[in-house]
């Protein structure tokens, strides 16, 4: 079992770090990071118990208190995903069982240290009460989360899939726990089998969150015009304008194709490749692209390369000592993002962080100054990318943050 726990600790910490270092995090992602951190702490405590403790009673009955915060965190994440203006702290009471469980856990631990025999009696009642409190709460919250997510989120959205899959895993865990408890009188070993399943499910949850943010498989291609790298990096490219050109020249292009002559306009072959895309041969493996992506994110976060308003692909390749074609390969086909979108997402996140920081300190905000500090070289590009990435104009976003701060006071 210790091997399962060790793997779980690594997966939880890796997932938390990857999500924390993600290019652009929305406000709800902080709750996912908290969930992953709790999983890591939970498994670390269990690893310590199974490695150091020799008392049989403690090994078999020492439930940890952290299990009480898993479903509440997922519950808050669900609401925050559906209602971005929701303040998780407003429903602090969902963590009351967690607080009580924490006090009880350390109280039992103190008694065990003082008197092992007396501690065994208290441990039995702690284990029984915590188990039969946790299971019903998890079942209720998991069912509510699944219902609420299905009702309010789009069926094809990645957030809905993530939320419902995690909720189902916790629900299955609770059902299996009840089953093993009922079968215990017939000779089934509840503790070892049930705990192994629970720890395995926690590993699956960590992996699922990683794929939610980093696996290329979760990206849904909305339109070839948005995702094809042949046109994504063309300066001043405007898809609607190019489509209009294509419509105006389509008859002429078809006749040229039939005669075998080369089209006069370079727009036609580009758009034909969009409509009839060739199957692409990847130059890099998924692991190699993941490695490059992590190094790029580390460099952008720690060195702040995005603040350079003249940053180009060639310049970033020189700074990070990576082949520019490998960087382009990673961004276009692993993230499905062109280079400038990748950079501008960092710039927008920088502006968002400054808006939140200055708003909390009640300092006057100059949006244009923030935009220039983040690396934008024009007001129009800043406003366009901010609306595209955040979904709100800079002014509307500032008002939203101000309202949240005012409600929290």
UniProtKB/TrEMBL annotation:
InterPro entries: Homeodomain-like_sf, HTH_AraC
Name of the molecule in the record: Helix-turn-helix domain-containing protein
Listed SMART domains: HTH_ARAC
GO MF entries: DNA-binding transcription factor activity; sequence-specific DNA binding
Transmembrane segments: 6-24, 31-53, 59-79, 91-113, 125-150, 162-183, 189-210
Highest taxon in the source lineage: Bacteria
Key words of the record: DNA-binding, Membrane, Transcription, Transcription regulation, Transmembrane, Transmembrane helix
Domain HTH araC/xylS-type, residue spans: 290-400
PANTHER family in the record: ARAC-FAMILY TRANSCRIPTIONAL REGULATOR
């Amino acid at each position: 079992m210790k091997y399962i726990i060790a793997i779980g600790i690594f997966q939880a910490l890796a997932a938390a770090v990857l999500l924390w270092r993600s290019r652009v995090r929305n406000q709800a992602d902080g709750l996912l990071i908290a969930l992953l951190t709790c999983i890591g702490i939970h498994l670390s405590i269990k690893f310590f118990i199974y490695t150091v403790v020799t008392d049989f009673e403690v090994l078999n009955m020492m439930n940890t208190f952290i299990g009480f915060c898993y479903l509440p965190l997922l519950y808050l994440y669900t609401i925050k995903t559906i209602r971005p203006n929701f303040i998780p702290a407003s429903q602090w009471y969902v963590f009351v069982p967690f607080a009580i469980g924490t006090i009880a856990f350390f109280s039992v631990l103190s008694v065990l240290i003082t008197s092992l025999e007396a501690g065994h009696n208290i441990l039995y009642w702690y284990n029984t009460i915590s188990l039969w409190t946790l299971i019903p709460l998890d079942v209720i919250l998991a069912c509510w989360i699944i219902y609420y997510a299905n009702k309010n989120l789009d069926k094809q959205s990645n957030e809905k899939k993530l939320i419902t899959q995690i909720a189902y895993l916790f629900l299955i865990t609770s059902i299996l726990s009840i089953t093993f408890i009922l079968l215990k009188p017939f000779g089934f070993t509840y503790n070892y089998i049930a705990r192994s399943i629970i720890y395995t499910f926690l590993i699956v949850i960590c992996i699922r969150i990683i794929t939610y943010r980093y696996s290329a498989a979760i990206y849904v291609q909305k339109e070839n015009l948005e995702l094809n790298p042949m046109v994504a990096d063309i300066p001043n490219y405007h898809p609607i304008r190019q489509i209009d050109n294509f419509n105006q020249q389509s008859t002429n292009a078809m006749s040229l194709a039939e005669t075998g002559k080369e089209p006069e306009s370079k727009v036609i072959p580009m758009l034909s490749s969009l409509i009839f895309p060739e199957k692409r041969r990847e130059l890099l493996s998924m692991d190699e692209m993941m490695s490059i992506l992590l190094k790029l994110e580390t460099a952008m976060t720690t060195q702040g390369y995005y603040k350079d308003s003249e940053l180009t692909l060639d310049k970033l390749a020189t700074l990070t000592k990576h082949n520019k074609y490998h960087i382009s390969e990673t961004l276009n086909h692993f993230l499905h993002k062109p280079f400038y979108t990748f950079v501008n997402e960092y710039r927008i996140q920088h502006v968002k962080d400054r808006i939140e920081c200055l708003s909390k300190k009640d300092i006057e905000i100059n949006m244009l100054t923030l935009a220039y500090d983040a690396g934008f070289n024009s007001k129009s590009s800043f406003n366009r990318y901010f609306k595209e990435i955040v979904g709100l104009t800079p002014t509307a976003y500032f008002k939203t943050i101000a309202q949240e701060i005012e409600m929290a006071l």
